[in-house]
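Handout, page 2. Input:
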Amino acid sequence: MGTVTRGTTNPNRLRRMDRWISAAHGAELRRAADPVAVDLGYGAAPWTAVELLTRLRTSAPRARVVGVEIDPARVAAARPYERAGLVFRHGGFEVPLPQRPHLIRAANVLRQYDESEVAAVWARLCARLAPADPAAGTRGGLLVEGTCDEIGRRHVWVALGPEGPRTVTFATRLGSLERPSDLAERLPKALIHRNVPGEPVHSFLRDFDRAWAAAAPYASYGARQRWIRSVRDLAADWPVTDGPARWRQGEVTVRWAALAPGI
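Output:
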């Protein structure tokens, strides 16, 4: 179920997203009896699925990865890369696994779809996630859907649980950034057409640029220190959910409700 994408991919392209997943969701994966992650729409080459397995196992040693692609030829080409903990399957948004996965990563998949289609795809994928288990103290599986540039310097993604959207994360190689609103070109499909006056995401990026400008004196200590100061100031008015340990990585995560499109 879905449409064949262009399949563009590069080694190390999704490192920022993977690094965040390991930090934010690693504990959930460790607690799972059989932690299964899906690399949905991995593209014309299997690099991102191979890398996802390696990175997840740093925080969840028992994690398994299933690469899912709607193009049978891409699945056949990926099969030689299978190994213990990594397999490839033909499929799409139905996520053809017998169990509910604890992670679905869908990077650069929805960019070719219409904005009107996003909510239905999100709902379908969230319904496939492992459910929350309050008795065990787990929040359930995680869907991470977003967009990045060709070499992974700039990336924005939405994290969703079985209940729906939770957060939006902006991540960048700080040396490539002139101002935070440069990340607007990598907003996921649910937000990219909403970066206009009157929409929350536009206000957020405007305020981020203002905080960045006000933090210009910190540039003498490096782009990282300027980013940290900017996010600290931004957090006075926006519900930032992470702290300096993530900001140092060139990231900031904000609650989805604050950036959700207006009606």
